TrEMBL record:
<keyword id="KW-0671">Queuosine biosynthesis</keyword>
<dbReference type="InterPro" id="IPR002616">
    <property type="entry name" value="tRNA_ribo_trans-like"/>
</dbReference>
<dbReference type="InterPro" id="IPR050076">
    <property type="entry name" value="ArchSynthase1/Queuine_TRR"/>
</dbReference>
<keyword id="KW-0819">tRNA processing</keyword>
<feature type="active site" description="Nucleophile">
    <location>
        <position position="271"/>
    </location>
</feature>
<keyword id="KW-0862">Zinc</keyword>
<feature type="binding site">
    <location>
        <position position="309"/>
    </location>
    <ligand>
        <name>Zn(2+)</name>
    </ligand>
</feature>
<feature type="binding site">
    <location>
        <position position="143"/>
    </location>
    <ligand>
        <name>substrate</name>
    </ligand>
</feature>
<dbReference type="GO" id="GO:0046872">
    <property type="term" value="F:metal ion binding"/>
</dbReference>
<feature type="domain" description="tRNA-guanine(15) transglycosylase-like">
    <location>
        <begin position="10"/>
        <end position="369"/>
    </location>
</feature>
<feature type="binding site">
    <location>
        <position position="194"/>
    </location>
    <ligand>
        <name>substrate</name>
    </ligand>
</feature>
<comment type="pathway">
    <text>tRNA modification; tRNA-queuosine biosynthesis.</text>
</comment>
<protein>
    <recommendedName>
        <fullName>Queuine tRNA-ribosyltransferase</fullName>
        <ecNumber>2.4.2.29</ecNumber>
    </recommendedName>
</protein>
<feature type="binding site">
    <location>
        <position position="221"/>
    </location>
    <ligand>
        <name>substrate</name>
    </ligand>
</feature>
<feature type="region of interest" description="RNA binding">
    <location>
        <begin position="252"/>
        <end position="258"/>
    </location>
</feature>
<feature type="binding site">
    <location>
        <position position="340"/>
    </location>
    <ligand>
        <name>Zn(2+)</name>
    </ligand>
</feature>
<comment type="function">
    <text>Catalyzes the base-exchange of a guanine (G) residue with the queuine precursor 7-aminomethyl-7-deazaguanine (PreQ1) at position 34 (anticodon wobble position) in tRNAs with GU(N) anticodons (tRNA-Asp, -Asn, -His and -Tyr). Catalysis occurs through a double-displacement mechanism. The nucleophile active site attacks the C1' of nucleotide 34 to detach the guanine base from the RNA, forming a covalent enzyme-RNA intermediate. The proton acceptor active site deprotonates the incoming PreQ1, allowing a nucleophilic attack on the C1' of the ribose to form the product.</text>
</comment>
Length: 376
């Protein structure tokens, strides 16, 4: 499973072995919510952009095309033609953030689809069944992600329920992995630590879920309205209480700066829509900070997005051409920026791994952050 190769301070460098390949950590997981990276980026492209892991979403795939459809077609790897690891988010966050109407009970959550309003029920068992049908490499436990701010009493009740749901997820996935018609009988389960910004709730939850001896542990309920300082403080508080010999996954984070700060605090799995979403809106992440290619100053700029970048876009195309594509409404402009951004993130993770191995992470982090601030 997970092998800790070395540490530099609290920063971890590891390898996570799965049935679909070995993941080198720290790793950024490229988000393909509905089994596709938004921005017309194919799985063939992902391979050329140093992608190790693709992340899709249980809620969205359950609604379209349907997890039973994916199972009949041989599972998500065959469906989207991708032979590396896939993580499926449990759908919990989407149930609580997208569903028009929802009612939480001990059994699970009744909600209305944000697409057509049809009534759906999802609980721990249903989430595991859907993820088993999808046949991802790693399944995430079904949890409640309370919004912030959140009253302490409700947070305590929510976390306790999420712990009970986690045990049900574990038992159900064990059952599903033993069935003869299950596509991926080696599907792994990650639990999710919750507790908002209440340190004592986070710590007690981390202790209890660590005792379940799962394949990995995620920290959820952050990047949902708290400050960056609160997020970093929460990581410093809770990461020491999660198993060092298992992957630690910070869900939904974040900017390059967020990732550098979180790696320093012991996190080694990340995912975020920023690279693709910002790319589709004309923004490029570079070693000299974020650029908005819609700006007029790039109209005659014949330089690549980032002269230090070796991605397929920077090798061939200019800022001026990409700006023209955006202004002309050509999808190619968005595609180029999404490709560049994904490469930038994946390459940065490669650099981070190398820096930790050399014991130079602090030097690397400072140089990277200074570069972001310096601008062009």
């Amino acid at each position: 499973m997970y092998r800790l190769l070395c540490k530099d301070g609290s920063a971890k460098r590891g390898e996570f072995t799965t049935v679909h390949g070995v993941i080198q950590t720290p790793v950024f997981m490229n988000v393909g919510t509905a089994a596709a990276i938004k921005g017309a980026v194919s799985t063939e492209d992902l391979g050329n952009l140093k992608t190790q892991v693709e992340l899709s979403n249980t809620y969205h795939l359950h609604l379209r095309p349907g997890d039973e459809v994916i199972k009949k077609l041989g599972g998500i790897h065959k469906f989207m033609v991708w032979d590396k690891p896939v993580v499926t988010d449990s759908g919990g966050f989407q149930v609580f953030s997208l569903a028009k109407l929802r009612k939480i009970k001990e059994e699970g959550v009744k909600f209305s689809s944000h697409i057509d309003g049809r009534k759906i029920f999802m609980g721990p068992e249903e989430s595991m069944q859907i993820q088993s049908n999808i046949a991802s490499t790693i399944a995430m436990a079904f949890d409640e992600c309370p919004g912030l701010p959140c009253e302490r009493k409700y947070m305590e009740q929510s976390v306790a329920r999420t712990e009970r749901w986690l045990l049900r997820c574990k038992n159900e996935l064990n059952r599903l992995n033993s069935l003869p018609d299950t596509i991926n009988k080696h599907q792994l389960l990650f639990g999710i630590n919750q507790g908002g910004v209440y340190s004592d709730i986070r710590i007690e939850n981390a202790k209890r879920i660590s005792d379940m001896d799962l394949a990995g542990y995620a920290i959820g309920g952050l990047a949902v309205g708290e400050t960056h300082e609160e997020m970093y403080q929460t990581l410093e508080t809770v990461v020491p209480y999660l198993p060092e010999n298992k992957p630690t996954y910070l869900m939904g984070v974040g900017t390059p700066e967020n990732i550098l700060e979180s790696v320093e605090r012991g996190v080694d799995f990340f995912d975020c829509v920023y690279p693709s979403r910002n790319g589709r809106h004309g923004n490029a992440y570079t070693n000299h900070g974020k650029m908005n290619l819609n700006n007029a100053k790039y109209e005659l700029d014949d330089r690549p997005l980032d002269s230090a970048c070796d991605c397929p876009v920077c090798k061939r195309y200019s800022r001026a051409y990409i700006r023209h594509l955006l202004k002309a409404g050509e999808m190619l402009g968005m595609r180029f920026l999404v490709m560049h951004n994904l490469y930038f993130y994946n390459n940065m993770m490669e650099e981070i791994r190398s820096a930790i191995e050399k014991g130079e992470f602090q030097v690397y982090k400072k140089a990277k952050l200074d570069g972001f601030k310096a601008g062009e």
